[in-house]
Design goal:
- By secondary structure, this protein is an alpha+beta fold.
- The protein has one domain.
- The chain has helices at 2-28, 39-50, 140-145, 148-155, 186-192; strands at residues 56-58, 64-70, 74-80, 83-92, 95-105, 109-116, 122-123, 163-167, 173-178, 199-204, 209-211.
- The strands form two sheets. A seven-stranded antiparallel sheet has the order 1-2-3-4-5-6-7. It has a four-stranded antiparallel sheet with strand order 8-9-10-11, with no helix packed on it.
- Strand 5 and strand 6 form a beta hairpin.
- The longest helix has 27 residues, at 2-28.
- The protein is globular and about 60 Å long.
- The two termini are 16 Å apart.
């Protein structure tokens, strides 16, 4: 019950901060945060969504960028055909911090997450979330019950760590999806699936993103 109450309190605070800030934060953030978008592009996104229209603009490279979601404390943009961008407002002490995720598909999706204070000063990512490793997605119960030969055969293709991050639209939650298996052929994917957790979820507790067990 305490956890439920805490989460409801965070949701209320996120909503209050977001209602005051999201549009303004997005419109006034430094150009370096979204170099493909001009100030006019950003304003057009908001105008289009306010008018219930598809929020699509021509970016600085001449391609299409679309703002797909804009909520009180979250926004997501399909920046190019193979890249996306997300931002989330997270309440922090008496103010807030901003989580920004950039994801590139090449051909498997892989993300980079960055945090900023309310003045757009970069913050140390390690202060707010422990970056997951490939081993964190291992289903230990299944792995340990397997024979050593099967372990070698099934897991030998997972020799790199590719992870997609996504913020939840309406909750202070970060989801990490292990995308490395997508590099494997279909038969191998079926072999490794029993040994892996497809996602890990983290809840913002007011100061850090804490893994949900």
């Amino acid at each position: 019950m305490k956890k439920v109450g805490f989460l409801l309190s965070l949701l209320f605070l996120c909503s209050t901060l977001g209602a005051q800030h999201m549009k303004d934060v997005f419109l006034n953030m430094p150009d370096s945060i979204t170099p493909l978008l001009s100030a006019v592009n950003k304003a057009d996104f908001i105008d289009f969504l306010d008018s219930k229209m598809k929020a699509e603009v021509k970016n600085s490279l001449g391609g299409d960028s679309e703002m797909q979601v804009l909520s009180d404390d979250y926004t997501r943009i399909q920046m190019t055909k193979n890249s996306s961008w997300q931002m989330k407002i997270l309440p922090f002490k008496e103010a807030y911090i901003l989580g920004v995720i950039q994801t590139v598909k090449g051909p498997v999706e892989n993300s980079c997450i960055t945090f900023y204070d309310s003045e757009w000063k970069p913050l140390d990512v390690a202060d707010f979330v422990a970056s997951p490793r490939a081993s964190d997605f291992l289903n230990l119960a299944e792995f340990e019950s397997s024979t050593s030969d099967t372990k070698y055969i099934d897991l030998k293709g997972l020799d790199m760590s590719l992870i997609r991050f996504d913020f939840a639209v309406d909750q202070p939650i970060l989801v990490a999806t292990y995308t490395t298996p997508e590099y494997l052929d279909e038969p191998m994917q079926k072999q490794v699936k029993p040994f892996l957790k497809p996602t890990l979820s983290y809840l913002w507790n007011g100061t850090v993103l804490e893994i949900i067990k």
